[in-house]
Amino acid sequence: IESGEKDLVLRAVGDLHESDSGDLIEALDPDLRPRLVELMGSAFDFTALTQVDDAIREEILDELEPETVAAGVAELDSDDAVYLLEDLTRDEQTEILDKLPAPERVALERSLLYPEESAGRRMQTEFISVAPFWTVGQTIDHMRETDDLPERFYEIYVVDPAHKLIGTVSLDRLLRTKRPISISELVDKNHRSVHATDDQEEVARFFERYDLIAAPVVDDDGRLVGVMTVDDVVDVIEDEADEDLKALGGVRSAEELSDSVLYTARSRFPWLFANMLTAFLSAFVISRFEGSLEKMVALAVLMPIVASMGGNAGTQTMTVAVRALATQELGRSNAWRIIRREVSVGALNGLAFALIMGSCAAFVFSNPGLFVVMALAVITVLTAAGLGGILIPLGLEKLGVDPAVSSGPFVTTITDVVGFFSFLGIATLYFHLG
Amino acid sequence: IESGEKDLVLRAVGDLHESDSGDLIEALDPDLRPRLVELMGSAFDFTALTQVDDAIREEILDELEPETVAAGVAELDSDDAVYLLEDLTRDEQTEILDKLPAPERVALERSLLYPEESAGRRMQTEFISVAPFWTVGQTIDHMRETDDLPERFYEIYVVDPAHKLIGTVSLDRLLRTKRPISISELVDKNHRSVHATDDQEEVARFFERYDLIAAPVVDDDGRLVGVMTVDDVVDVIEDEADEDLKALGGVRSAEELSDSVLYTARSRFPWLFANMLTAFLSAFVISRFEGSLEKMVALAVLMPIVASMGGNAGTQTMTVAVRALATQELGRSNAWRIIRREVSVGALNGLAFALIMGSCAAFVFSNPGLFVVMALAVITVLTAAGLGGILIPLGLEKLGVDPAVSSGPFVTTITDVVGFFSFLGIATLYFHLG
Lengths: 434, 434
What we know:
The structure is a homodimer. By secondary structure, chain A is mostly helical. Chain A folds into 3 domains: 6-113, Alpha Horseshoe (MgtE N-terminal fold), CATH 1.25.60.10; 129-248, CBS-domain (Roll); 261-430, Tetracycline Repressor, domain 2 (Orthogonal Bundle), CATH 1.10.357.20. The first copy, chain A, has helices at 6-13, 18-27, 32-40, 54-63, 66-74, 78-85, 90-97, 102-113, 119-122, 136-145, 171-176, 183-186, 200-209, 230-248, 261-287, 290-295, 298-326, 335-364, 369-398, 403-430, and strands spanning 129-130, 155-159, 165-170, 194-195, 214-218, 224-229. In chain A, strand 1 (129-130), helix 10 and strand 2 form a beta-alpha-beta unit. In chain A, helix 13 (200-209) crosses helix 14 (230-248) and helix 17 (298-326) runs antiparallel to helix 20. The longest helix of chain A is centred in the C-terminal third of the chain and has 30 residues, at 335-364. Chain A is elongated. The termini of chain A are far apart.
């Protein structure tokens, strides 16, 4: 179809929602993607490009003429435009920005000055602001007469002459009120606003907490500079959960299914390497007990069970801790209570599994002494797992390191080392193998 | 303060946002919680109860008189009311419902008939619907004159005489249009509606995909029965990501920081038990090589490293697969490509770590033969980890089992068994230990 039949393509693609045309672009052969955009010309909605994988978007933008991109970007809401531009190099950005009309250019340049992942980057700079002395009727007439309104909006903003935010008026309040009433009577001064330099995760928590649909974004002087809307927040929440989940599994958050084999393998290498160092440490601990192992080979059979139980219990606690830190449910106020709880849970399950695993070990090897050794080791390692599983994420958070990314290898190190050391150590003492 | 000083409490708590008063309730002593609600009487906003942990909510509702609860529930939006009622027993529900005015009662009873976690449970039954022949002016006047409007709304709905949904009109469109224009000219017939029996996760994906703020909910006959709003969807997305993350870490999704030690320990037991069986299987594999281990104790030192590398590589692949299945990025159309990719990534990293770990093993034990054994075992286990890490989640999904909950133990079993078996087996053959 991509052999140039513009009309056919337009009919097929023209009416699709941006998410659907995004999917279509991803499914196309890489060569055809920029050609589709060029073929459709001004009928192509660049919003679709915000819906495709980062790598694919960059590829397409690189292929297209700067003029084409500039024309497309000019049609976008400012938040989508920033999203498209922010991953490009400085030079590419300038090349495109220079081709935009002045007001759009200035707005985009200002947004791009805010830190990455801040509200300033995600906000829309199109919004409706009115003076407090306007009436409802004036406001409605203003909206009826102005062509250049934002595509969708849910609130209007009331500002003073210096453009400082006074408050918000939701559209439903506006609609329910008679025309002669002054806006100043409607304004919600308890409006919840966001600061342009706030991190997008903070903004997401804020939206979620107060069930917001939109929130005004203000600068250092309290001036209204933009609006954050809930659809951007939904994406942030999704991305954030995605990051934590992948980080806990040892995968970079940016990893995508479309990444190449070589790229994926290389990006997963560091986590495996960290784990290898951890495993070497365990091996070193085991090697200290070579004498005991030679005298009693049953220990070699049983020791991985102890370490693996510790690893899993540690992962349980760590998962809870990382998630609770991310959602801010775990903080200074309840840290001690949760530490006590996790250690108690570890000890309690330690006791349960001590009985089960001790009995099994003693029975299988017909050696009652193994009950004592196994039981003591299991209690030790599960308690240590509870303690390490909570203290390590808390400690990393305090050091300013993302606990989701880095907790895993440390927790495994503790549970493995404690597991092998306690089991082999207790066995060596109990059976006098030393 | 809770010694009965109503005025003081009212002044302190009365104006808080529901999320803040929810936090306050959680921080209170359990005995004081229902007393606070009773003390505040009709000034207590029951919405706050939707913001506290499930266990705490049930406790409070159990303590309160059904009359108090009924009075509080009557004030709520229908979606919040359903949320409060749905975890109660049938009897408790009936007791409270019987005390409600008839229209509220019927609406709530109908919502409660829909399956758990469906759009019907989460929807709000308060909405504004108008006939297509109304004008913009009539509609605005209707809204100005009606007292019983939903607390917040973003769209109005156009229905035919049989209450079948014709389309939606967003408030901004309404505000921008002159009074004499007919609603039928404004209506967006491409409205995206949700079915009342749709699962909330599907609805969340749908909102996210099309950046919706609200969507009409229709029944089997296409009649408008309610509205889903984005604030509920944000909660669903958050819960869903939470579930997957916790499931991968071996923790029940409903686990909360306020759960007791005993309860938490018991709920984490099954996952640890499954892991124990897995570990026993590994131990059995090791026990088949007791002879080899006796002859060469270095193998006991090195074998946990191999198994642990496999476990971590398997977790990486599994994490990617589980997440991609949850977000529907991985499906029938690309499964083969992703399987090939994961196996290749595993083999490639296997090769890299074969060189590193083989060299280390040979050097530390001054035994060049260990290079060959270690290298072959590492390649085998990392390739198997890639294969198992993708095939198991795919297979579980096909069987209708949640891959996030159940993949872990299976993947670990595979990587452990393959790890120990390949390393000890290759060593036995290579060094003629059999």
